[in-house]
Design a protein that fits this description.
Length: about 450
Amino acid sequence: MSQVAQRSPARSFARQAHAEHGHAHAQTKLVQREPPAAKADWTLGHGGRQVRVRPVAFWIIVGSLVLMAGWSAVTATYFAFRDDVLTRLLARQAQMQFAYEDRVAELRGQVDRLAGRQLLDQEQFEGKLEAMARRQAVLESRAAALSTLPDTAPTGSIKGVPRTSGAPAILAPQSVPKPSPINDTVILVAPPEREARLESRNAGAMTRLAAAPVNPGIEGTLARLQISLDRYEAGQAKTLNTLEESYDGKARRMRNLLADLGLDLGKIAPAPGRATGGPFVPVTPQGTSAFDRQLYRIKLARSQVDRLNRTLAAVPIRKPMFGELESTSGFGVRTDPFLRGPAMHTGLDFRADTGEPARATAAGTVTMAGRNGGYGNMVEVDHGNGFATRYAHLSAIDVEVGQTVRIGQIVGKVGSTGRSTGPHLHYETRVDGDAVDPQRFLRAGVRLGGLL
């Protein structure tokens, strides 16, 4: 024990000396090995243990601890206020859903209003289109009715077609050259038939309009189509007025002409036409519109003109030869060319060359065709209603007794037979067997030609 106690101080001293020497040696090394720039380290100690930590690792550890602390705080807060947060979230979601449903309902209402307005516009458009289609059908039916009437005053809505024969043509167009009174093969032949057609048109355009969507452009198109239909209807009305005035004017002038001739229209039967017949059916106006009533009046006026035309066909008002006629001896008292005394001349003498054709001045039946005393070769034609005409001094006769002749038909050739001093045509007009002045009838024929 005593040795141990004695050695211990010595060992302690030796260890201390050695430690001091080592410390000095370490300081010497530290002094000798000191780096150019010392790095700052963090030292963590606990329970006599020390741990040196570099700055990067230190901040990583600190940041991790902060994040964990924050996460823990957030988690704790979430669990603490979870119900309140969920309630608010659900309320907010419900509010957004309600707002979305309200917006959808509002948009649906707008769509319904737009659809209803579009449907209403479509119905209005279809109604207008249907009304115009009905109006077009009416105008087409009117055009068909107008096509049955001869056109004396062509308009833009009436188009002419070739002439057909068989009916009177006292209503021939103004464009036809005016014939001389004898040339009534033109005066009293068939008039040109005219067919009225709708300008437009329009069925194809209406089909395209029906397939097109309703928009402002369609309204403009409908307005233009309406204007076109109005213009066409106005053209039809103008055509009706022109026809009515034309028929009334012609009938009035023909009545005046017959009155100037001293003829009673009620006692003169029209010349027989083509074979016709059938039961009597009174005419009644068709329809109640102004167009139908005016068309009815026009048809009545036309029938009157046709009757007057047939009546005038049996009145000898045409010239017995073509061209300008030169009278060499008038009707009435004259000096007889053979006896050189006063004598009654019952007709007109027209200068002509031998062989020139003499023509019937009205329709009728041949009652004499042969030699007749001083007349020489003579043809007499009975025109009915007491009218008769004679063609004398003929070199040749081209008709037979009982033959029916038409206006302008050749009855013989000019000559100088009978009591004649040279080639000429002796022409007479007789009423109820008495000779009358042919000039009165020829002047009426000239007036009739001037009416065309």
